[in-house]
Amino acid sequence: MFRSLAVVGATGAVGRIMVELLEKSALQFENIKFLASKRSVGKTLTFRGREYSVEELRPEAFDGVDLAVSSTPDEVAREFIPEAVKRGCVVVDESAAWRMDPEVPLVIPEVNPHAAFRHKGIIASPNCSTTQMVVALKPLHDYGRVKRVVVSTYQAASGAGVGGTKDLIEGTRAYLEDRPYQYTTFAHPLAFNLIPQIGSPKHAGYTSEEMKMVLETRKIMEDESIQICATCVRVPVANSHSETILVETEKKITVEKARELFASFPGIVVVDDLPNKKYPMPMDCTGRDEVFVGRIREDLSSPNGLVFWCVSDNLRKGAATNAVQIVELLIRGRPN
Ligand code: 2RA
Question: Locate the Semialdehyde dehydrogenase NAD-binding domain: which residues (predicted)?
């Protein structure tokens, strides 16, 4: 049914990883094309030993395309995705443009695969900070029903795009050489600093990034009663987001049980050995497709509280990997 594929935003940071993951996957397509903004037209891309020219993202580029996987800025996704759908193409979208549309399923394949098959042409992939948290919450929710979550994030510079990474590297260099640097992506210096704002002011003193963690989590978990308090912070880490997650469940989950639940859930790796200084760290998780958890302990201040540390590559499971897994899910077909 899906014979031809387009990768939209193929030359961007997430797009490049999508191409790499598709190349390594077992997926086969009769036709594949790579689309990007005018700026990238003429660039070439090698895919499974063949060279492809990057084509311009235009509505007509979707003629004859069955399936697209897309990573673009929100405004581009708002404009082009309806054009693709009009032409019979199913789009897996990494942007935030369509995530909260009630007609659009928001999917993490390990968590709510069934939702993907309700699509009307668009399937959205969640925000990076939401995805890793929800993967970790799902086994706890299935066992003990999650009632409340307090999460603080430590988000890497790469989450803000290539400009974010450049700001971190150049800003660090300038700081060490004691010369000024004009940050282009961040509103404040990131080197040797933290910025407790990601996104724009959105609701009651919370930012758009924090509200994504609240609203997207409830949509994916199909449970509007889950209470979530999020604080999102940009940290001077190159790649991979980290989170401290405090979860209160209806049924008590002991540390041993949590470890067992995490370890048996697909896509989660437990690294939890405090005496031997073993826990997930951004450097170790970069380039990996899983969600890593560690520092699992009881919350000493509440009867059914559990706290843990969660790290994942924001460009991979937080973006490209999840989108490609949705493509694999669609091709594999509905779970029984
Ligand atoms: C960030 N979560 O890290 C965003 C990217 N979607 O800025």
Answer: 4-119
Which atom of ligand 1 is closest in space to residue 155's alpha carbon?
3
Which residue ranges make up each domain of the chain? 4-126+319-332, 130-313
CA–CA gap between residue 45 and residue 11 (Å, rounded): 9
> Rounded to whole angstroms, how far apart are CA atoms 224 and 215?
8
Ligand 1 close to Cβ of residue 159 (< 6 A): yes
Q: How far is CA 40 from the centre of its chain?
A: 24
Reported ipTM: the value is 0.96
The 10s digit of each residue's pLDDT in 73-93 is 999 999 999 999 999 999 999
**Which class in CATH covers the domain with range 130-313?**
alpha beta
Question: To which CATH superfamily is domain 4-126+319-332 assigned?
Answer: NAD(P)-binding Rossmann-like Domain (3.40.50.720)
229 is catalytic: no
241 is catalytic: yes
Q: Which of 89, 119, 141, 241 is catalytic?
A: 241
Q: 53 alpha carbon to ligand 1 midpoint, in Å?
A: 29
In short, whether 133's Cβ falls inside 6 Å of ligand 1 is no
The pair of three-digit structure tokens given for residue 100, joined into one six-digit string: 């909260």
CA of 50 to the centre of ligand 1 (A): 33
Query: Counting atoms of ligand 1 from 1, which one is nearest the CA of 241?
Result: 3
- Locate all alpha helices (DSSP H) within the chain, ordered by sequence: 13-24, 74-86, 113-116, 128-144, 162-176, 208-221, 255-263, 282-285, 321-332
